[in-house]
Fold this protein.
Amino acid sequence: MTSAIRKSGKGTTHVDRFLTLIRVMLIGLIVVGSLAFVAQQIDSQNPFARWANPDATGLTAPQFKGLLIAGLSQGAMYGLIALGYSMVYGVLGFINFAHGEVFMVGAFTGFIASNKLADAGLWQDYFVLSLLFVVLLAIVVSTLTAVLMEAVAYRPLRGSPRLIPLITSIGVSFFIQNVVIVLFGPGAKSYPALPEGLSKQYRFLTFEIEGTKILVLLVAAISMAGLWYFVERTKTGKAMRAVAEDKEIAALMGINVNRTIVTTFAVGGAMAGVAGILWGILFRSVIATTGFLPGIKAFTAAVVGGIGNLGGAMAGGVSLGGVEAVAPLVILEPLGVGGVSQLRDAVVFLLLILVLLVKPTGLFGERLSSEDRA
Amino acid sequence: MTRLLDIQNLSVTFGGLNALNNLDFHVDEGEIVSVIGPNGAGKTTFFNMISGMVTPSSGDIIFEGESIVGLDPNQVTALGIARTFQNVRLFANMTILENVMVAQHCRTKQGPFGALFQTKAFKAEEEAIRAHGEKVLGFFGSRLVGYRLEQPAAVLSYANRRRLEIARAMATKPKLILLDEPVAGMNPKESVELTELIGKLRSEWGFTVVMIEHDMGVVRDVSDRVVVLDHGEPIAQGSYEEVSTNPQVIEAYLGRPVEGAGR
Amino acid sequence: MTATAANAEHLDAQGGAVSDGSMLDQNWAKLVKFGAIGAITLIFIALSGMLVGLDPRPIIEGRFSLGYLALIWLPIMAGYGMSSETILEGMVARAKGARELMAGAIVGALNGAGLSLLIVLIQNFDLRDPLVNWSPQLLNLLGFNNGNGFGIVAWIVLGALLGLFGASFHVVSSEVRRVISIVVGTLLFVSIFEGIIVDLLKGFGLSPVTDFVYGLRGGLTDVSTIVIAVVATVAAIYGKGRIKDAKAHVASLEGAERKKVNTGLIVGGAALLVILPLFTGKITNELLANVGIFLLLALGLNIVVGVAGILDLGYVAFFAVGGYTTAILTSPNSPGFAPELPWIVALLITVLVAALVGLFIGAPVIRMRGDYLAIVTLGFGEIIRLLLLSDWLSGVFGGAQGITNIPPADFGLFQVKGTDPRSVFYLVLVFSLLAIYVSWRLEKSRLGRAWMAIREDESVAEAMGINTVNLKLMAFVVGAILASFGGAIFAAKVGSVFPTSFLILISIIILVVVIVGGIGNIAGVIAGAVVLIGVLGGPRQPGLLQEFSEYKLLIYGALLVWMMLKRPEGLIPNVRRARELHQDEFLQDAWLKGHVDDGSDDDDDATDSLPDGGEVAPA
């Protein structure tokens, strides 16, 4: 009931004014950057483009499309991870900080399984079957990790003040990361080479798309469709939505809340497992800290899409991936910022801040029970 | 008598639902006014709006000649409007004394500098805060003072929590005090006693009181004026006698028109 | 807990809560669960490389190493834990006997069997590819250098014995239990903390003692083991109850007397802290300096998280701001702007900059939901690090090369520099005391009360006239300033700053320090910093247990989870927070003591002749 419809009129404080300033500055940055980019694209010598950054060269269409495709395929992966954050937040109302680690465990499982398959000569020869096997294995391991996490660390904390499970999940994340380090060593691990067909470029409409990216988008789309079917069409999915709405009422309606929560973690874990394999396909390398940044970015995607909103999480992921790939070159570079590729992650965090300042319920609206919204 | 609070055409909607509709209402200085109405009539929303926790969709709230719409709750409190909550919201892990000390925040001004250097002004202010805290607690007899001062609010009985809430509101040194169902959950004896104290809030402390109450006995005993809300709309205003015989009011409470008078 | 016969009978009649002593009447499900969890944990410990990595470090020279210690504690705990039970008010402890010993032995054997299984697996499969510690060396040590067959049998037998030992704690008298605990604890303490003990005693010219106690390769010798065990036993028996008596004595003192004792203790402690570093060696002083820097950071974070309830995961940003501002202002190598100010002048500017950055970061986040705030501050922490690292701003911050050649802090009489950890320690001590003073005074003021109210219920605090936004912002800024002190000292100490010195990891570790120590409680935070940073070490700084440096982050993670689950209020809890987290128990406790208001309307409840009302302690 607090600040349900607070519109600051007279009560504007310095903080409010400062926030407005930040909002305006961030949006202004985006507008001016984009305009400068457009100006450059039209003619790199026109005065506006030169004023902002005399050295900028602009992008060619294929470059831009390439960036966008790379961004979107990464974004699809973020989207899959974001589903887990979003579902858990919807049901339990806390950020499972360790969800990124579930994803990392999936990627690690994929690394081990694919290398063993490659040693046996199966990876190259029967790629589709091998990949299917690896994906299924990653799903199983990630799901187990997520379910175990819930049982050991989160279940005993139900009903405690809301920051306590969050802090616990930070500990869980730290712990899993370091378990992986002490067991498998701190170095980077490589996936085996992919079949040649995947590294070729394919033409699709006007886009040149690399095989791996098609594969990633395809797998993500299939997983998302499966999840959508599960949540919207099955009885368990309905139970999940009911529990997200109101745990007590759901329990009164005969839904086993505990089992539903475990299912939520399991489904989120499965999606993260798939995302882990996609990471392996895209980057072919995994280390114990792999889960951290994609985890945070996926959370950002969940917030951008509206937390608790599954379609929003996926859309948020894809758009985040696109923005992350394109924004540094489209907005920052035309403004004269050097070495923009180093600032990709910073762009993501700025986006998170902007969304929370301008539209904290996300682009597609959040779906939370009223108690979690407090 | 001067107008302390003047509410003009106040409306608020929550997602299409009219929680309050065109409320015109005023409180004169030194009055005790009761707001009554069936559950869901918008009484608590009305309080939330005055105290700045909800912003009205239209209309104006004038306090001492100035509009307070759009102010943050803390600014409203600083202007001199304090409130209690229907579902008792004390700082349960703070001591009873701390509960009333912290409520004087907006009446005091020492910052980090005074605290770090233990200036004379700081010490004097702390002493004054403490003294005023004990004074408002003393209003309720010996229940909240003595060894209880240093106990956490969580150990208090329900009735005493309600009393502490009122003390906390008093500690903010308000001009207008909003009581949200002050006697709910109290036994008849306690109600009678508290009713008397509400009278003293005006006579001894000079507060103007607006209260939401379901207990018609209490309403009858202390109110100068009664306002009846139903479905977000004011349906009657006037003295207790006028209101209690108003057929519209009886209909609102009983759901159908009733011949004859109320109680 | 003393059992009265009447109570025991009562329980018995209710359904046989008293053990009948039959050895096979076990809780098999629990047994298998404990056994399996223990076995898996042991396999994990072995595969994590602790056994191999820590074996070179002896506890008792030639007999027993830290590597084996990393394994054998577990069956003991499992054997003990198997028969532990929570005894609630009004319950009577069950009589323990052969049944419990049996349970302990079985659990221990199951635990040990995990390692036997591991031996079989290593023998037959080669998983060295993903698992880095799957090595013949591990196999060798698991077999006690006596072959695999021996190892398989030995671990089961040893496990059973250890479990039995653990369970026997339930059976023997509390006196024996106490003596054994003290003796084992002393032996382990003396052996494990060899490094600092040698360093300390050397400072006091007592090298001959350490020469006698420790063997050439480290660890206790046979003779010294026996001597220490005997001394500890005597001390344990002789010293029984004396500490408790002393405590009780102090507690029984009247206000003024007690204040005297407290002042005495504080002055004594402070004097010790000032004098001690004069006698200790470089390593110990370095350690103390690191503990101090982290303590400073932890005290700052405690104001933000513990007092105002804002979970700031990007706290390291302010540490970085402090470090980099000092570096830019003092170092001649600063790439952009290099005024080469003296440290103390730079410090003043650093504080201002940190406060501004605190306002700048704080303003947008302060209104967010608590958990969003955590992630966004984490984001700010990363943004700051990425900016420091970027080529774009390398003209000011030096990019990945950082800023080097930061001069020592010059105070005329003496200089504070990294090569002289003692000077760093004194500087840190001064600032830590300052931070403690600030925390203490602010908490006890009008601001502290307002912070408390905000933590309890933000919207009510707002309705009670507290400007929550400004106050939270103020807490944020105070935290930022304390962290910037840490950064400034860090820069002068290390002599260079790099983006990699300010990883998010540091935020997390400081958070663990605050939480493990006791969130919201200054004494708790000090304890947390001393125990964790002192013993385990900071992210890059070695602690006393240097051997564990590879595993310290693992331990930090596990500890954080464990504390949140078992004791979220920390080692030395803040009274209020403990109350908040254990509201039901607290109220039950207060009720038992007769402190709870029974709601009787009569005024006589105030005249109840209760002792000091403030003494209600949480359960």
Q: What stands out?
A: The radius of gyration of chain B is 19 Å. The beta strands of chain B are 3-14, 17-28, 32-36, 58-63, 66-67, 81-83, 176-180, 208-212, 225-230, 233-238. The interface with chain A takes residues 12, 14, 48, 52-55, 57, 67-72, 75 of chain B (CB under 8 Å). The CA atoms of residues 52 and 80 of chain B lie 12 Å apart.
